[in-house]
Amino acid sequence: MAKRILPYRDYSEHDVVNLFALDVNGATLSSFVSNGTGDFDAGVVVSVSAGALPGEVSELRASTPDNLRDYLGASFDGAHIGFNGYPANTGMTVAPADGSGRALGITLRETLAFDENGEKMLYYKQKLDEAQGVLPGQTVPVLTKGLVLLSGSAFASAPALGDDLEVSSTAGKLETATTGTVVGSVIAIGEESDDSAAKKYLCKISF
């Protein structure tokens, strides 16, 4: 599971934004797998990349080539052929933050297209939920304030106890604050019981 954020977390649901999907425009969805890692991870620091409020219904991605429509399968290419559009939240999206603008928060779920066996998560909703994931184009919850336990992969470089945190220029990650806006602090550090090199950081965040 590609998670930079570990199971312990303490926050109010009022501090979770459930309005934006991960921007997958031009992304290779075959890499969005449950045993992989990338910008689709849970625990990625994100900023708003598109903020166009939608109408009464979701956009239906029906044209090809289009990575979301092609993910649905059976792309139509002629007249009088029935097809289904792929409903997607593409007007309200977030992308990994790089410190150049205001960050929104940190993702609580992965965006997954395939499982570890190459099967589409589109057809295995229970497995998708068990993996704490959402499908490409679906809204991903973003935490703006709270107490979270992060793995070392959530940081561009390892922070020390008591360090203030800022958004790193390495997209989607945090680092010890120097000149940027402080978005959190490290209040405790631990390690995995079976791997002393695998550090974990308890952080208080507020974006």
Q: What distance separates the N and C termini? A: 25 Å
Order of helices and strands: EEEEEHEEEEHEEEEEEE
Number of helices: 2
Unreliable stretches: none
Q: Can you give the mean pLDDT? A: 90
- According to DSSP, the number of beta strands is 16
Strand adjacency order, main sheet = 1-12-16-15-13-14
Helix content: under 10%
Overall, the morphology is globular
Rg over CA atoms, rounded to whole Å, is: 18 Å
Structure classification: mainly beta
Biggest sheet details: 6 strands, antiparallel
How much strand?
25-35%
Characteristics:
207 residues, mainly beta, 6-stranded antiparallel sheet, 6-stranded mixed sheet, 2 helices, 16 strands, 6% helix, 35% strand
Structure description:
The chain is mainly beta and 207 residues long. 6% of the residues lie in helices and 35% in strands. The longest helix has 6 residues, at 67-72. The mean pLDDT is 90.
Quick take:
The chain is mainly β. The protein has helices spanning 67-72, 125-130, and strands spanning 5-10, 16-17, 21-22, 45-51, 59-61, 86-88, 92-96, 105-107, 110-111, 133-134, 142-143, 145-151, 164-167, 174-176, 184-192, 195-206.
